[in-house]
Amino acid sequence: MNAEVIKDVKNAVYNEDGSVTCDVLPAGMDSYLPYTASRNDTTPFGQLLWQQLAAGTYGKITPFTVTPDMIEGAREQKRREINAWRNAQENASYTFTFRDHTWDYGKAAQSRLEPVAMLAKNGQLPEGFFWTDANNEDIPMTPADIQALEAAMIGAMVTKGFEIHQRQRQMKQALDKLNTLEEIRTFRVA
After folding, report:
1. What is the DSSP letter of 92?
2. Counting beta carbons within 10 angstroms of the beta carbon of residue 6, is it exposed (0 to 12), middle (13 to 18) or buried (19 or more)?
3. What residues does each domain of the chain span?
4. Could you tell me the CA-to-CA distances from 43 to 40, 63, 68, 159 in Å, in that order?
5. d(CA 149, CA 143)
6. Could you name the domain of life of the organism this protein comes from (predicted)?
7. What does each C-alpha distance from 51 to 25, 32, 41, 131 come to in angstroms?
8. 3-55 maps to which CATH number?
9. pTM given for the model
10. Does 168 have pLDDT greater than 70?
11. Which pLDDT value is given to residue 3?
């Protein structure tokens, strides 16, 4: 391709990925057009422009600069990741030990047990009632047993919830201490 297809280039700036955004004045036109050139451009025009930019034909290319907005945007993205982690942890199922059995707990298990516990408080459980533990064993339960299981489950949920809350607070505090875009982007949420 003939080098004369490009009359001028101005405002060339490196992007984070190494490409260059610039304003190009193609031959035969009166106004500049925005263009992003990259080493892997597949068009003849883009390949020529990249070669000329790399050769310095249009002057120095302004280096990529991390802006405060980019840092804050990355920080906000990590906060969203931390919140998503917290939500997933809070909605997960766990197990705990109570009276020599392993039981499920979490929001789903609580929603199943709550109406049963209400009936148990009113003495309305069917005769021979049982509750199935985490090992899929049917355990005979009295109204008092159901109420005790509910209290133990709530205790386990509060303990786990507080652990989750503490961890997400620790992550957010650690995130707030990071200063560079790379540090923020590579911060591990877990």
Report:
1. S
2. buried
3. 3-55, 72-186
4. 9, 24, 34, 60
5. 10
6. Bacteria
7. 16, 19, 10, 73
8. 2.40.50
9. 0.76
10. yes
11. 58
